[in-house]
Structure formats: C-alpha cells, structure tokens
Amino acid sequence: MNLRHLEFFVTLAKTEHMAKAAEELNISQPSLSYAINTLEDELGVPLFEKDGRNIKLTNYGRIYLTYVKNSLAELNKGSEYISELLDVNKGHINLGFTFTMGQDLAPRLVHEFFKDPKHQNISFSFKQGTTNELVNDLLDDKLDIIFASKPDNIQKDQINLYHLVNQEIMAAVSLKHPLSNRQTITLPELLQYPLIAYSKQSGLKQTIDKMLASENLKPKVEMESIEDHTIIGFVHWNFGVAIIPHLPQLAENQVKLLHIKAKENWHELFAITKANHFMTPSISAFLDFVCSYCKQNYLNKNLLI
C-alpha cells in the first residue's frame, strides 16, 4: 500500500472536493483519482460517494480514515524520534553498568557529561547487573553501552572494549578482626582465614582467581555471593575475610579495608559497545567523552579508583 496514497486520502477526506485536494497536494486531479481508485480496489470497498458537486466519505471511508490518521501520526512520530536520535545534541542512551561501577564511576561520568550545555537534551536509561548479563543485553540491542569488567566466553569480534580505569583490589576484614590494625597485607597472611568470595557470575572472580593463582594460593571459601554488599555484610559479622574492589561509598563502620601487597592489585574496567553496530551521534559523543575523561583523570596519572 502506497504511503503517499494514504496521505492523498486524508487530504481528500478533509476537503471533500477533488479540485481543492489536488491543488493542496500540488498534483493533478487524474493522479488523485488514480490514487483513490487504487486504494478502493485494494480494500474492495468504496471510500467516497458523490454529494452534489462535492464528495463525501462513505461509512467505510470514515472507519478507514480513523486508522489511517493514527497510523500516519505514529509514522511521523517515529520519523521525528529518529531525527532526534541522529542529532548529536539530542537522543537517548541506554547505559548498563556493574554493581561496583554504580558506586561512583557510572554516575560520575554521566554527571560530568551533563556539565556541557550541549548535552542537556540527551536522556539516559540505566540498568545494573553482572558483566555477562549486561553483555547479553548489549548484544540483544537492549543496551547501547555498558561499563563492566572484561567479559569471558564472548568472542572478540562481537564487542569493542575501551579501557577506562583500573580499580584497586583490597582486603576487607571485620573491625574486630586480628588484622584490623593493619594498613597493608599480603595474600598469604589474609588467606589464613576463611574467604567470603565472589561467585562465578561476577566479573571480578576472574581477576581475583588470577591474583591467587600467581601465588599458588587456594583459599578456604566460606561462602560465595555475586553482590558486593552481601560480601561486606558477612565480613562485618566476622564470618570471614574478603578480597573486594575499592568501594568509595562504603561506610567506615562496616569493615576495615587493607591495601594488598601484590604485583597487580587492580581490576581493569571497560566501556563496552557492540561491534559492527550503528551508534547514534549522542552515543558516540558520550563514548568519546568517557574515554577522554578517564584517560585524562585516571590512566595518564596511573591513578586507581
């Protein structure tokens, strides 16, 4: 069905006059008649009937007009929305981030992005989850960009990785723990005690396992959890110790954080996008901003978060 013919139909229904409608549409009367006849042939019903020198809608035409108007309005809204998405100063970004990055970095980057007046008309939706959950949503086009750990079991050609920051990995002990008077600690010293560990669903597990393997350590795991604050809760009540990322919003009365003496006591965090996938100008602008901001404020200064 020809979209232009539908527009002709709406105009003719409004004017109820062939000559006036043709003039308004800047087409010939025969062209208008052909368009209406084609529609009627496709539908199998008459849309107009003669009314003296003018014409008027049939009952079928009045019913059809309602649906055509609604459909054209929705198409116009869609076209307007696409135009907004293609405007670098407008558009919408679906942003996903891991639980750890929701503590500070994700909201900080969006906050800093909005400081530029040109970005005030860009809107965001947010989703928090594990790295693998977020990557799956990214590949399903439910998210535009994510902040997360480097995912495992994902083919390299499926995603683009942009290194943003390195997050310090620290030890957490109860405030009443024998190690709570320390400021730094080695992994062998820490793992004399039961470990409250991250489960395999967490993107942190791979980094922590690598740290332990480098020193041939096999901890006694008391329990596993996917979520930072659950781990903190069990450490607080002295069920064991933990190896966690630096959490800037963690209250000082919950646990004592200790620096770990290790060759690589940090965890790499990335911005991740879908490979070979169209990005709107607003998404590209945000990605460029976060990469530049993190390079300038963290990576170039060798600063851990």
From TrEMBL:
Residues 1-58 form the HTH lysR-type domain. SUPFAM superfamilies: Periplasmic binding protein-like II, Winged helix' DNA-binding domain. The keyword Transcription applies. GO terms for molecular function: DNA binding; DNA-binding transcription factor activity. InterPro entries: HTH-type_LysR_regulators (IPR050950), LysR_HTH_N (IPR000847), LysR_subst-bd (IPR005119), WH-like_DNA-bd_sf (IPR036388), WH_DNA-bd_sf (IPR036390). The keyword rRNA processing does not apply. Gene3D superfamilies: 3.40.190.290, Winged helix-like DNA-binding domain superfamily/Winged helix DNA-binding domain (1.10.10.10). Belongs to the LysR transcriptional regulatory family. It comes from the Bacteria. This is LysR family transcriptional regulator. GO terms for cellular component: cytosol. Keywords: DNA-binding, Transcription, Transcription regulation.
